[in-house]
Design a protein that fits this description.
Helix content is about 85%, strand content about 0%. The chain is built from 6 helices and no strands. The longest helix has about 35 residues. The radius of gyration is 20 Å and the shape is elongated. It starts with a helix and ends with a helix.
């Protein structure tokens, strides 16, 4: 982030040209942190059977899953819009897309893990309903939760790398 304070982007920040980007970026990091905390609490609640805000494991899982889906949809569309804005700026300034292959690689890798994680969260939520109705054993549900949680941690790392890649590509526009 040091290049930000040494470049023209600081002047643009003061004029209000870059502020929405930084607010949305920080909001997406807040969503990532909240999702990690929420998934961790729901997982611990499922193993140790305690209440949070007078909600049992099933109620808490419902709310955390809904918040997770909303926040990941926000992050997904933010990354798409951010990428599109950078590409359009480069094309309008006739900057050769040197990083075109890198853009595609970053997007494919991030989108693949994004959809895998969404599938894991939804399938674990549905399996949790089957476990709590005594239709199946909780072992698969618990094992899938660990896979889902560590996949989400990896997704957060990939999202951070994607943001860093896009911010570095903004340097080319400077």
């Amino acid at each position: 982030w040091l290049w930000f304070w040494r470049s023209r982007w600081r002047r643009r920040w003061r004029r209000g040209l870059v502020k929405p980007l930084w607010y949305l970026l920080n909001l997406s990091y807040f969503f990532m942190f909240f999702n990690i905390l929420g998934l961790l609490l729901v997982g611990l609640q499922g193993y140790f059977f305690f209440y949070i805000f007078k909600m049992n494991h099933m109620q808490m899982a419902l709310w955390i899953t809904l918040i997770y889906l909303f926040s990941q949809s926000f992050i997904y569309f933010f990354i798409i819009a951010f990428s599109k804005a950078i590409r359009e700026s480069m094309e309008s300034r006739k900057i050769k897309m040197i990083m075109d292959d890198n853009f595609i690689k970053v997007k494919i890798k991030m989108h693949l893990h994004f959809f895998i994680n969404m599938l894991l969260v939804m399938s674990n939520f549905l399996l949790g309903g089957a476990v709590h109705n005594n239709l199946m054993s909780g072992t698969i549900h618990g094992l899938l939760f660990f896979i889902l949680f560590f996949e989400y941690i990896w997704l957060c790392v990939l999202q951070h790398k994607t943001y860093a890649f896009y911010m570095n590509s903004l340097k080319l526009l400077d």
